[in-house]
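Class prep. Write one:
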Amino acid sequence: MWSGLQIGLEDAFQILVMAWAYFYVFLFFRGTRGAQVLVGLALVLVILMGLTQVFSLNELNWVLRKISVCLGLALLVIFQPEIRRALAELGRQPVFVASVQKRNVVDHIVNAVAQLADQRVGALIAVEREIGTRAFQETGVKVDATVSPELLASLFFPHTPLHDGGVIIRGNKIVAAGCVFPLTQNADIQKQLGTRHRAAIGICEETDAVAVVVSEETGTISVAHRGRLSRGLNEDRLRRFLTVLLVKGQGDTAWRRAQVKLDLTPEGIAKADELAGQEDRSAD
């Protein structure tokens, strides 16, 4: 039965390409008004061609085959908005601009944190990395909105329902707000640290997330990672730190380098400026 059926590598490759194309076309049109039109056209065409084949209506079948060839031009007109959106989205796929998207998220976080620090508004932001934070998301309110400085700042505005909890960011989305993070049980933590700082350290002990804290009393910016807290950061050093861990995606080695950059002693500041100069020259 299968003796005459031979599929080579070239045929298998073409099948995979076509399957991939149909799958992503389906995903793209799913839930849009264009999907209904596309399904309707496909059903009508398949039914008519099937009927003409069954009843041997050769002339009508020939006409339908010719129409199906010209249907491509009609689809360009019918689905013009969807096609334009598809071409616009193509350049925004992670495979092309993942690093650009991550840098934008870092910039949005830094801008929001700087604004909150200037106004001395307390904030707690956790950026999810490899280890999931679903258990902590369920303690808050689902948001599912694109990260922006304005939205982040508004979530922590005093007297709003979600301002006391933590915000969790995954990718370029704010997935939850008003979340309860676990408090660190480390006895070596300084006693003057408040609940936000202890919660930032706590979630970084449970996961590999990066947590940014703004003190409500002093407006001081701090960052927690791997159960450690770095305090007294300015806008520029916060951006460098988040870029190392979130954009470059590096691990413990990057953490040690970031600690050097975040050393706030005069020697540490001089060393950080030297490293920054080296990075700028290498980027050029």
Q: What stands out?
A: The beta strands are 123-127, 141-146, 166-170, 173-179, 210-214, 221-225, 228-233.
